[in-house]
Amino acid sequence: MSEEGFENDESDYQTLPRARVNQRQRGLGWFLFGGWKVLCGSCCDCLAHICRRKKELKARTVWLGCPEKCEEKFPKNTIKNQKYNIVTFVPGVLYQQFKFFLNLYFLVVACSQFVPSLKIGYLYTYWAPLVNALQLLFCFITIKNVSSRNEKLYTEHNQNVPLFFSSFFFAGACFIRTDQLDGETDWKLKVAVGCTQRLPADLFSISAYVYAQRPQLDIHSFEGNFTREDADPQIHESLSIENTLWASTVVASGTVIGVVIYTGKETRSVLNTSYAKNKVGLLDLELNRLTKALFLAQVVLSVVMVALQGFVGPWFRNLFRFVVLFSYIIPISLRVNLDMGKSAYGWMIMKDENIPGTVVRTSTIPEELGRLVYLLTDKTGTLTQNEMIFKRLHLGTVSYGTDTMDEIQSHIVQSYAQPALNSPKVRKSVSSRIHEAVKAIALCHNVTPVYESHTSVNGETETAEADQDFSDDNRTYQASSPDEVALVRWTESVGLTLVNRDLTSLQLKTPSGQILSFYILQIFPFTSESKRMGIIVREESTGDITFYMKGADVAMASIVQYNDWLEEECGNMAREGLRTLVVAKKSLSEEQYQDFENRYNQAKLSIHDRTLKVAAVVESLEREMELLCLTGVEDQLQADVRPTLELLRNAGIKIWMLTGDKLETATCIAKSSHLVSRNQDIHVFRPVSNRGEAHLELNAFRRKHDCALVISGDSLEVCLRYYEHEFVELACQCPAVVCCRCSPTQKAQIVRLLQQHTANRTCAIGDGGNDVSMIQAADCGIGIEGKEGKQASLAADFSITQFKHIGRLLMVHGRNSYKRSAALGQFVMHRGMIISTMQAVFSSIFFFASVPLYQGFLMVGYATIYTMFPVFSLVLDQDVKPEMALLYPELYKDLTKGRSLSFKTFLIWVLISVYQGGILMYGALVLFESEFVHVVAISFTALILTELLMVALTIRTWHWLMVVAEFFSFGCYLASLAFLNEYFDLSFITTWPFLWKVSAITLVSCLPLYIIKYLKRKFSPPSYSKLSS
């Protein structure tokens, strides 16, 4: 079907209504309800852009010991990772806080008290809470706002440097750790420039220079040339990533002398640094909407008051005075209490002994753990252990598994016990084919054996590498890939051991103890683009030159000679959950290699398109290679992955697995981990490349019901290009989704799609550097500190050590954080609404006068020492025990509906506040005697008692600290009565009439609510109370 025909055949597809973006008129309403924030943000961004004008990054020539020859000035070698400086700190923090409606509201109200005609009460009653909140905020940000510096030239063990030319380890090489740069924990081998390896320590004694490309973001590539002028003829050598050490990497072993090429802001680590978005929790957004509703109610109430006055006199001034008078309807303590509560939740999470090692790296979104609908997880290292075990060797006609490895070992022993017969006319025996396969696996890699150093009697460290005894007891293998280490360990287990390696050679030990030496002529590292790696070696004893290569089946299928089994066996191994590698070889003559080396060296010296030219030369060798074997390595599942995924699924959380692995392996892991149940249908989305194919495949998928979806990254990209809404709608209906061959960018894109199209909260979990973008894009990011390093853990909002901990993190701590914050937020608003109701009643009775009911310390004490501790003790409350929450994960579904904090619950609290505020004020006015001061004493004391009793009514599970907080606050109030003679008549408050009047009013305001709560729990109990009983 043509695309034109397809355009007219689209009516059969059920398309979703697309969102329409209307152009809003920018008037006064737009400015008041958010337009001011847009304008301020635009102005700040413009000023920041002007202040941070970046100069153009250029290539440079760095002379050794001759800085006067450098024509251009480069940045100072200082790296500052602080968010603010001395100039931007105060305005930056203030803008970030006052861009929220709640904080801006209180700033405007506090500033209005400097106008004499609008002043109500004392200034400190408005400014003290605001200043205290800002002081706490500034102190917290100051602690986090630290800087670091990085200046190195001579580097030793556990230090770092951007580029080096000479070292004293492994004849011009050293090992580095890059876990803080790319998240990989394995050591990486770095080599010095060849012509500088035997120079004295003083590099300035030679006349040479380095030409380096302009600073770039890519940390996995580098192009440059090294030229030595004092040699005859001049020496020119190409520089690559193997000759460089970036900032933020650590020299793991050896000593380095180098030349700094990039400094300060031009280093790779700084160029790749980006600030993650400031995540705002859904509960904070809901509370922000409620405060806007309260503000609207406050304005309406003020207008009613002025209208009842008849709009006489300066009514507009009176209107503003009423707005200020009712400002406590939106309490400033709301933000302070919530922030303190979030910090308390984080502390509780980190102190939970059932999830040891958990770290909370943000104090703004713990409630998000209780609102999640989608969980997007990585596979390798997250669901699996990233601990590779060799499981299968396939030679085409015969396959060996874990139970037949002893046969391979016997073949290896036999092949090295007798001389090999090299006869091209005779078909190779199984023994010789096994020998060649194992030998290729033992040679084709980037693994280096490292021998642990041991300390002598005098305390000096002796390196075992120099001993040359190649002891098996303290040998460990280091490589950038755990797959390679697994392969080398397997060859050791069958008798062929890698015992030594340097820049130019490696040695293997046979079962009989004989050492086989090979010269390393060339190495072609693995890249994500090529999906393969190769090595050219020359055997010392025979002089034979052999080119070995291994890689993914998709990359090797077109390189090896024709065969009829590779594709089928790769699919079989993938269905077993094994990671496959194809191993091949090609014998080279001396003339063939010399021709290749000349072309290869010439391509490496190119400044322009070096990568393409080098790849073209290497590809000239990758033709008609002899297929040796197919290997299968298993990545074992993490502990308790299956019950954890089942727990999350029962909780109503939809799980999507995003991985860069092949489709078959991803599907197998999804089944073995029970992400997809055994009896559940799986729809494998066929590869599509255009709009027509995507349309047909989506129609086929739409007819399926209750089946998991497996789709590749390429097909996903096509679907999102033409049918974004339709695809997301269909995928969201699936019980599970597996996206394979996903790039890090695609992972983050999928997260954003779910956020945009579903409006549900998303969580991303991963353990590698390639998961960082997904973690930062999600509403809640969780990093696992695993074998791939700490980059994901450091970039996440929450860090855990095992995947199984996510169950308790969500079911227990997510539930508690959300429930507690919802109760705390609504109670703090109730505390403000009740006193505003009393103020409204008071003003309406006394001829609508804009006079405050309570002044000075009474207002400050009401929001702090008198009620603060009991109200904040709500962060200790829990409706369900942790064991019950884990036993019945279905309870989590209610949290995602947001019923604990909604307009319905908010209106209930409004009605409670209006009822209690009216009872307290009218009761005090009816029962007071001759003096007005008695009204204040009766109503305020009854108000404090009512708030303490309401806290007790709200609590579902008592904690001993709650009891202490209740009695402590009441004791503070009683003790302060002796000093409040300015507001109270001390002779009256010690009389019996005062006590019975306060008790009567308090009883009327609280008893009906207690009765209603009892009846509701008896006749309409919540689901969790049914389970508890």
From TrEMBL:
<dbReference type="InterPro" id="IPR006539">
    <property type="entry name" value="P-type_ATPase_IV"/>
</dbReference>
<feature type="domain" description="P-type ATPase C-terminal">
    <location>
        <begin position="794"/>
        <end position="1021"/>
    </location>
</feature>
<feature type="transmembrane region" description="Helical">
    <location>
        <begin position="992"/>
        <end position="1012"/>
    </location>
</feature>
<keyword id="KW-0812">Transmembrane</keyword>
<feature type="binding site">
    <location>
        <position position="660"/>
    </location>
    <ligand>
        <name>ATP</name>
    </ligand>
</feature>
<keyword id="KW-0445">Lipid transport</keyword>
<dbReference type="GO" id="GO:0005802">
    <property type="term" value="C:trans-Golgi network"/>
</dbReference>
<feature type="binding site">
    <location>
        <position position="526"/>
    </location>
    <ligand>
        <name>ATP</name>
    </ligand>
</feature>
<feature type="transmembrane region" description="Helical">
    <location>
        <begin position="293"/>
        <end position="313"/>
    </location>
</feature>
<feature type="binding site">
    <location>
        <position position="484"/>
    </location>
    <ligand>
        <name>ATP</name>
    </ligand>
</feature>
<feature type="transmembrane region" description="Helical">
    <location>
        <begin position="932"/>
        <end position="953"/>
    </location>
</feature>
<dbReference type="GO" id="GO:0006890">
    <property type="term" value="P:retrograde vesicle-mediated transport, Golgi to endoplasmic reticulum"/>
</dbReference>
<dbReference type="InterPro" id="IPR032630">
    <property type="entry name" value="P_typ_ATPase_c"/>
</dbReference>
<dbReference type="GO" id="GO:0005768">
    <property type="term" value="C:endosome"/>
</dbReference>
<dbReference type="InterPro" id="IPR036412">
    <property type="entry name" value="HAD-like_sf"/>
</dbReference>
<feature type="binding site">
    <location>
        <position position="378"/>
    </location>
    <ligand>
        <name>ATP</name>
    </ligand>
</feature>
<keyword id="KW-0333">Golgi apparatus</keyword>
<feature type="binding site">
    <location>
        <position position="378"/>
    </location>
    <ligand>
        <name>Mg(2+)</name>
    </ligand>
</feature>
<feature type="transmembrane region" description="Helical">
    <location>
        <begin position="960"/>
        <end position="980"/>
    </location>
</feature>
<feature type="transmembrane region" description="Helical">
    <location>
        <begin position="28"/>
        <end position="50"/>
    </location>
</feature>
<dbReference type="GO" id="GO:0045332">
    <property type="term" value="P:phospholipid translocation"/>
</dbReference>
<protein>
    <recommendedName>
        <fullName>Phospholipid-transporting ATPase</fullName>
        <ecNumber>7.6.2.1</ecNumber>
    </recommendedName>
</protein>
<feature type="binding site">
    <location>
        <position position="380"/>
    </location>
    <ligand>
        <name>Mg(2+)</name>
    </ligand>
</feature>
<feature type="transmembrane region" description="Helical">
    <location>
        <begin position="906"/>
        <end position="926"/>
    </location>
</feature>
<dbReference type="InterPro" id="IPR032631">
    <property type="entry name" value="P-type_ATPase_N"/>
</dbReference>
<feature type="binding site">
    <location>
        <position position="770"/>
    </location>
    <ligand>
        <name>ATP</name>
    </ligand>
</feature>
<feature type="binding site">
    <location>
        <position position="661"/>
    </location>
    <ligand>
        <name>ATP</name>
    </ligand>
</feature>
<keyword id="KW-0547">Nucleotide-binding</keyword>
<feature type="active site" description="4-aspartylphosphate intermediate">
    <location>
        <position position="378"/>
    </location>
</feature>
<keyword id="KW-0472">Membrane</keyword>
<feature type="binding site">
    <location>
        <position position="771"/>
    </location>
    <ligand>
        <name>ATP</name>
    </ligand>
</feature>
<dbReference type="GO" id="GO:0006897">
    <property type="term" value="P:endocytosis"/>
</dbReference>
<dbReference type="InterPro" id="IPR044492">
    <property type="entry name" value="P_typ_ATPase_HD_dom"/>
</dbReference>
<keyword id="KW-0460">Magnesium</keyword>
<dbReference type="Pfam" id="PF16209">
    <property type="entry name" value="PhoLip_ATPase_N"/>
</dbReference>
<dbReference type="GO" id="GO:0005524">
    <property type="term" value="F:ATP binding"/>
</dbReference>
<dbReference type="InterPro" id="IPR023214">
    <property type="entry name" value="HAD_sf"/>
</dbReference>
<feature type="binding site">
    <location>
        <position position="747"/>
    </location>
    <ligand>
        <name>ATP</name>
    </ligand>
</feature>
<feature type="transmembrane region" description="Helical">
    <location>
        <begin position="319"/>
        <end position="338"/>
    </location>
</feature>
<comment type="similarity">
    <text>Belongs to the cation transport ATPase (P-type) (TC 3.A.3) family. Type IV subfamily.</text>
</comment>
<feature type="domain" description="P-type ATPase N-terminal">
    <location>
        <begin position="70"/>
        <end position="127"/>
    </location>
</feature>
<feature type="binding site">
    <location>
        <position position="771"/>
    </location>
    <ligand>
        <name>Mg(2+)</name>
    </ligand>
</feature>
